[in-house]
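Hi U.,

Before I forget, here's the chain from the pilot set. I'm dumping it here mostly so it's searchable later in email.
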Amino acid sequence: MYYKEYLRARRTLLVFIIVAAVLLALSFAAMALPGAYNPDFKGIPWPELLEVAALAAAIVATILGSTLAQENDGHLELAFTKPYSRAKYAAIAVGVDMAAIMLTQFVAFVFIVLHIVIAHREHLVAGPDAALNALRFTLFPLAWYAIIAGLSAGMRCRTGNIVQMLIWPISFVLVALRGAPFNAAWHGLFVALNAVNPLIYISYHNHGDMTILAASSLQVAANAAMLAALVAVGWVAATLQWRRVEA
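Structure:
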């Protein structure tokens, strides 16, 4: 009964692999050209590569995020006649998508490492708080997906598509507004809104009085914990919303 979502997730993953492989081949070809620029990284922390892979996986998360909204379009009446729990179906459908997102991030990470090691002949280092940073970057695309699923599960497909289209620009605008020189009241508002913005928890940069990346292991762990909380809340919200959708 979850085969349809498995096929959709598998198709999206295969398309991503093909695109990533083409981009990797093009990067090798570009580096082979005479006079090609070959930067000297002098040892690049592998968690930073995982961050890039996480952003790539977030694109796939965006594509898959309206899964339950698509169920609401055209055949919801039939879906509700199936002899299984609506909540269970929603939870497992989300789980299938999340598994595909994690595989996407792994594939992206492998391709990025191949590019760095082969094209640039560079070596990798762990960097500070490698395990904690790896955890938060792994959680980021899952949190991104959970936010979309949680927002769109009670919508029809077209409305869910709007959520998919707007989440990136809105998230970047919220990050920018958080760093803008507003008064204390507006600053507090944008800090509060960014609490549910996954982008805020993966930055390596400091902005004025805000430490987005945390300079200490405790702060990195807190960022990872917030992303884990967003995954859980989004998953539960999507499941509960879809259970209450009326045909």
